[in-house]
Amino acid sequence: MKALVLKAPGTNRDRDLVEALELAGSQAEVVPLAILREAPERIQKYGMVVVPGGFSYGDALGAGKLLALDLITYFQEAMSDFVASGRPVLGICNGFQALVKAGLLPGSARSLQVTLTANEKGRFECRWVRLAAPASHCIWTQGLEDFWCPVAHGEGRLASFENEALARLREGGHIALIYTNADGQPAGGEYPANPNGSIGDIAGLCNEQGNVLGLMPHPENAVFSYQTASLPGKSGKGALELLRRGVAFALQS
């Protein structure tokens, strides 16, 4: 199974992601958006689509916004068909922001207005956090145990102007990952366990079908022993298992 890794100008985690996906059992190909625009239908040849993190377009006009415009303008039909086919899609950090702003997340709950905006503390957060996977539709996180993963973002706070947004996300099974404290309990909105102030401690969202996942932390940087060796007790196994679940699902799709 070959995964398509989309590369926009400024994206800087694509090579890390290729290594992690290959460790998880997939082949991966990095394709610049400028090339893919010439033949958007090429997307359908892959078993998985991944939108990596970084600073696409230098985060001009807001994190992930110009990448989202790419997805809407050039790839809306191709991406919609890919998602509808049930094959897995993953957006990490900047990629998560792009999927939300392009309307691919939370997907069928598109009428629910959510966004990813500036961290509550108003500063860039680059460190390890602990994550848990509550019950959801997400195929990427089913049965996943708590695990540690690094974050690196300045605009990762999931927010909404709608008072019922959090309840609707929970009821719809869209909350795939949450931030927890060191004991594995929900962060309760408290910093630093919740690094950005996201409502409901949300670290990742999925669509109703469960095949599209967006998350702020970087699982691709928590899969090798050398990445976690200096962090006693902070296992990265869950990050690799998350990617393996996506690969396994793609092989079955």
State the separation between the terminal residues, measured CA to CA. 10 Å
Q: Which geometry do the CA atoms define?
A: globular
Share in helix: 25-40%
Count of helix runs: 7
Tally of distinct domains: 1
Largest sheet composition: 9 strands, mixed
Oligomer: single chain
Helix/strand-derived category reads: alpha/beta
Mind telling me the CATH superfamily name?
Class I glutamine amidotransferase (GATase) domain
The largest sheet has its strands arranged as 2-1-3-4-11-10-9-6-7
CATH architecture: 3-Layer(aba) Sandwich
Percentage of residues in DSSP E strands: 15-25%
| Cα gyration radius (Å) | 16 Å
What's the total count of β strands? 11
What is the CATH C-level name?
Answer: Alpha Beta
- SSE sequence, one letter per element: EHEHEHEHEEEEHEEEHH
Mean pLDDT across every amino acid position: 93
As residue ranges, the low-confidence spans are none
CATH topology name, in short, is Rossmann fold
Main traits of this protein?
253 residues, alpha/beta, Rossmann fold, two-stranded antiparallel sheet, globular
Q: Any overview of this molecule?
A:
The chain is α/β, with parallel strands linked by helices and 253 residues long. Helices cover 27% and strands 22% of the residues. It is built from 7 helices and 11 strands. The protein has helices spanning 14-23, 33-36, 65-84, 94-101, 165-171, 225-228, 237-252; strands spanning 2-7, 27-32, 48-51, 89-92, 115-117, 125-132, 147-153, 157-159, 175-180, 202-206, 212-215. Helix 3 packs across helix 4 (94-101). It starts with a strand and ends with a helix. The mean pLDDT is 93.
